[in-house]
């Protein structure tokens, strides 16, 4: 997998089936790395240096001198390293929520066509033709639910059944249909990323990642009550330990620059030699038990624009319903310090949308107030049950955090934190529908465009009943009613006002944000529902259609 890329370096992430030395060759450049071990699994991160800004070069991978990539007879074009070009337009793909499927009729009817695979097929075709239909992507931002550890598919069910049939009787018996141990997470990632087309795409487009709840478990860290109840399960400690440990290995390590990784204590522990499973487990448990002990958020420069990838899951402080924080103290400080101007565009990517349809926003704000006792102690319990049942856990359900970030963004737009950018853009996923919301400051005018861009899912349609509920939540009358409800619970009016100006769109989709100087635009592409199902009727969906869904000029 091609991960962090700068103007002069590129990181290649590799998993092997045995210890060895991994070599990456790109033109006259080469890098070598010995594998490191975690619970019997083997990985390497190779750093190619000496690239020129904008340089594009084919690369090859070998293990112990034996070529392993590209695979012999592969139908895909060669994988490329493409160093960042700060003077060129930055084209950032983003999306979330992908369930791997076999692309057959039943899978397409339930989950829709895999848009990530559809994009990979189109990119491969364009490269083979040596005349791309569109400019190459700068990076792919996968913002949440790269794997579903609690909603597994049949191949993973079969793996769990076979593996656990040999589990010693003294071991904790985990849920039959959920991933718990590191070996199981490793298999889950393998199944998710081994589709040949997706595997090729991840090898040739730089990728940055963030987790959301399903990477660990549905509703992860939604509240203090949730944390206390889940901890009563004997399998929870191995589950959260394996989930966070495998996330560091499979997703987070590749987000880091060479300098950041060299300074990371987890990386240093894994590189000390021997199997690093125990060290990784200890780190992961501490990251869960003391969220401020590690920062999962990360920042990246794309030309004169800054992208902040913000952890909204592990760093939460939910112990007290009267003092909830989406980011925790350390995460909140980091984001506040990172929200500055002197850039063309400031992009804040969090798995959870910052600006929801107003009906949902005010419902979540009202629910948070009720859970904190705004309507008396007797309603706190029912409020908590409603929170968990309806997943009322987005930024709106953390009003103190929402207000703090809103004020910081308005200071950026007003020029109080450096020269104002042309735009402050929030990227989000999670909700399984896509939309655009445009925002403004209440009571004053700024020249900086503020907008929320949501693209979700990549492959996991909402069931029809949920579509109807979310459509209703997006109506203006619903927003007004929920606003009144929230005000009756003491919720203050937000500093930002916003409205939907595109969506709600429910098809599987992948978005492209283009940042070109002070200009910004966005395009959503989807795989049309009716045609995708029809093409799958006769077997595996060989070539999912990919069509424009919507396009908007932002600045």
TrEMBL record:
Recorded superkingdom: Bacteria
Every DUF7800 domain range: 1-79
Pfam families, per database record: DUF7800 (PF25077), PhoD (PF09423)
Cited SUPFAM superfamilies: Metallo-dependent phosphatases
Gene3D superfamilies named in the record: PhoD-like phosphatase (3.60.21.70)
Domain PhoD-like phosphatase metallophosphatase: 133-458
The name this protein goes by in its record: Alkaline phosphatase D family protein
């Amino acid at each position: 997998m091609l991960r962090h890329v700068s103007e002069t370096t590129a990181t290649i992430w590799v998993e092997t089936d045995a210890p060895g030395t991994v070599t990456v060759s790109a033109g006259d450049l080469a890098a070598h790395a010995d594998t490191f071990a975690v619970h019997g699994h083997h990985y390497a991160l190779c750093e190619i240096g000496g690239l020129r800004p904008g340089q594009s070069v084919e690369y090859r991978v070998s293990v112990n001198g034996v070529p392993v990539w590209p695979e012999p007879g592969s139908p895909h074009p060669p994988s490329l390293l493409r160093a960042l070009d700060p003077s060129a337009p930055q084209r950032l793909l983003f999306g979330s929520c992908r369930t791997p499927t076999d692309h057959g009729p039943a899978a397409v009817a339930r989950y829709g066509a895999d848009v990530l695979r559809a994009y990979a097929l189109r990119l491969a075709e364009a490269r083979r033709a040596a005349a791309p239909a569109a400019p190459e992507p700068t990076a792919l931002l996968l913002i949440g639910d790269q794997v579903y550890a609690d909603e597994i598919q049949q191949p993973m069910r079969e793996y769990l059944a076979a593996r656990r049939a040999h589990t010693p009787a003294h071991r904790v018996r985990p849920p039959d249909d959920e991933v718990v141990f590191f070996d199981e997470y490793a298999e889950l990632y393998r199944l998710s990323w081994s589709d040949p087309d997706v595997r090729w795409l991840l090898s040739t487009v730089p990728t940055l990642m963030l987790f959301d709840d399903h990477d660990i478990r549905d509703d992860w860290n939604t509240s203090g009550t949730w944390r206390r109840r889940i901890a009563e399960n004997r399998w929870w400690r191995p589950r959260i330990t394996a989930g966070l440990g495998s996330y560091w290995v499979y997703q987070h390590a590749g987000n880091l620059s060479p300098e950041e990784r060299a300074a990371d204590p987890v990386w240093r522990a894994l590189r000390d030699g021997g199997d690093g499973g125990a060290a990784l487990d200890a780190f992961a448990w501490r990251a869960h038990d003391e969220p401020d002990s590690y920062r999962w958020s990360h920042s990246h420069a794309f030309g004169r624009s800054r992208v902040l990838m913000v952890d909204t899951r592990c760093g939460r402080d939910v112990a007290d319903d009267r003092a909830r924080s989406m980011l925790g103290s350390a995460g909140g400080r980091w984001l506040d310090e990172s929200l500055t101007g002197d850039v063309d565009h400031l992009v804040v990517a969090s798995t959870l949308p910052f600006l929801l349809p107003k009906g949902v926003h005010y419902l979540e704000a009202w629910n948070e107030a009720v859970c904190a006792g705004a309507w008396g102690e007797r309603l706190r319990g029912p409020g908590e049950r409603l929170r968990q049942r309806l997943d009322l856990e987005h930024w709106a359900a953390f009003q103190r955090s929402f207000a703090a970030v809103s004020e910081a963004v308005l200071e950026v737009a007003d020029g109080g934190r450096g020269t104002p950018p042309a735009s402050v853009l929030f990227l989000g996923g999670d909700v399984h529908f896509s939309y655009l919301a445009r925002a403004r400051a209440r009571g004053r005018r700024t020249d900086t465009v503020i907008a929320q861009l949501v693209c979700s899912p990549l492959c996991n349609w909402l069931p029809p009943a949920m579509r109807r509920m979310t459509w209703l939540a997006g109506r203006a009358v619903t927003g007004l009613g929920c606003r009144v409800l929230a005000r009756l619970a003491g919720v203050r009016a937000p500093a930002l006002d916003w409205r939907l100006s595109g969506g709600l769109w429910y098809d599987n989709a992948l978005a492209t944000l283009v940042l070109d100087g002070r200009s910004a635009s966005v395009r959503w592409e989807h795989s049309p529902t009716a045609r995708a199902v029809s093409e799958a009727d006769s077997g595996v969906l060989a070539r999912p259609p990919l069509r424009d869904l919507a396009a908007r000029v932002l600045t």
